[in-house]
């Protein structure tokens, strides 16, 4: 009979650490998150703004502004009209909107 190695069926420490640790350290790019905000708004039947931009970053959290630029045809003056703000985690793509309602961009 052939003798099986004692460690058969076990997972090495390196393999154990790659799963959970890799998931925790993986993050969405700003471009991916920006597109996910656009897609989320579309899936939920929300107004499609002209622009979605990164307003600022604070650690793992990224705040996005969804807005339009409104131009007065007579004067040429313009201003932004914000429809919503989203503060989203780079790691989970979840966070909250302007009203502090929970948002998960993956749903």
Order of helices and strands: HHEEEEE
How large a portion of the residues is in β-strands, by DSSP E?
35-45%
State the separation between the terminal residues, measured CA to CA: 53 Å
Q: How many β-strands, per DSSP? A: 5
Structural class: alpha+beta
Tally of helical runs:
2
Q: What characteristic shape results from the CA principal axes?
A: elongated
How would you classify the quaternary structure? single chain
Largest sheet: 5 strands, antiparallel
Helix content: 25-40%
- Backbone CA Rg: 22 Å
Order of strands, main sheet, comes to 1-2-3-4-5
Average predicted confidence as pLDDT: 84
Low confidence ranges: 1-23
Give your account of this protein's structure:
With 107 residues, the chain is α+β, with helices and mostly antiparallel strands. 25% of the residues lie in helices and 36% in strands. It contains two helices and five strands. A five-stranded antiparallel β-sheet has the order 1-2-3-4-5, with helices on one face. The protein is elongated, with a radius of gyration of 22 Å. The termini are far apart. The N terminus is likely disordered.
């Amino acid at each position: 009979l052939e003798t099986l190695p004692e460690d058969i069926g076990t997972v090495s420490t390196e393999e154990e650490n790659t799963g959970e640790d890799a998931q925790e350290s993986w993050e969405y790019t700003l471009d991916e998150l920006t597109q996910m905000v656009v897609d989320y708004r579309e899936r939920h039947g929300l107004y499609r703004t002209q622009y979605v931009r990164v307003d600022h970053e604070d650690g793992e959290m990224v705040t996005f502004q969804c807005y339009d630029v409104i131009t007065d045809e007579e004067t040429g003056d313009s201003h932004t009209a914000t429809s919503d703000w989203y503060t989203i985690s780079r790691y989970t793509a979840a966070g909250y909107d302007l009203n502090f309602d929970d948002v998960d961009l993956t749903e």
